[in-house]
Amino acid sequence: MREGAPTTRWTADHVARIDAASASSAPVIPVQRRIIDTLDLWDYWPVQRTDGHPAEIMGGTLFIALSAPVLPDPDARHAVARLRLLHRVGTDWRDLGPALPDGLSPGSRQWSGSAIISPDGAMITLYYTAAGFRDEAEISFVQRLFQTRAALSVEHGTIIVSGWTKPTEFLRPDDVHYTSEMTGGGAIGSIKAFRDPAFFHDPANGADYILFAGSLARSRSPWNGAIGIARRTAGNDWQILPPLVDADGLNNELERPHVIVRDGLYYLFWSTQAKVFAPSGPAGPTGLYGMVADTLFGPWRPLNGSGLVFGNPPAAPCQAYSWLVLPDLCVQSFVDLAGLTQPPCHVAQARAHFGGTPAPELRIMLDGERAWLA
Fold first, then answer.
1. Which of 117, 149, 214, 322 is a Cys-bridge partner for 226, taking CB atoms 3.0 to 4.6 Å apart?
2. Can you give the CATH number for the domain in which 77 is found?
């Protein structure tokens, strides 16, 4: 299909096909040791090559994660989130400190994105979400997409990421396909999206794309989540394109969308939560969802007929979130509210159960339009 082909809709009919008795559920997460005792960590991703595989750096993988001090209310972390560098070798993690220097980012906090290493391994390009505005008196919900580059080196056995360029805003909502009004209801799960930029290089045509979580412009429904896309032009700018997938009337947030190519097919994945489905229709579990297509621009077909790849287990419906599928089908996420059979009823309970650290990695299997946990 050509660029700008009709958007695929994820519908209530698809979600209604989820059979709770037979749907794949992740195993219950045992108690996890936190990487950093004084910080909550979530929404992490590896520094990747353009083909999507994690880059090997000093015998391991360099990660970028969202981080925040351990606050009484774990939901408050979103208002102070900052990118942090981590290096993992095997099962050992090393904290490398904040990714961006103080005062460099134009937002009041930093949200998710992706990072690509240059072919020679000397540079990292970071695409990320700047939420709010620097020094704003009141926290706002504006989300802007920025890119910046830094030099990568190893000196005396230490990874050095230095010389970040001034962040540039590379993509803006057009109010034709994607709304620029982010406030929504103002509560977590109700704000609108223009965030989570994920780099994708299409091997079919050699073009570079950015996928992102968006919200439809001109929608009549408060539940108007979409998976947006933009293409890098010959002039090194980014051209915004119609959504790949939308969930108009069904779901408010299709978060951290990303694509891998496997066995000649394109697999599109995203995360969403049970609480952001429209209350008037069917709801799926908090989990990893996806579709498959023959080309990047679809038409897309929901995996397993419904879109659900796997959910959190019924015994722990909020235990993990923000899944990232890598080209080898390894799936990474973070420990959210573990050990609860239902969402927490008060802040102290949320704090006691919030994991704030990487979750055990999972692996999926793919066979055409079927997907399941290995």
1. 214
2. 2.115.10.20
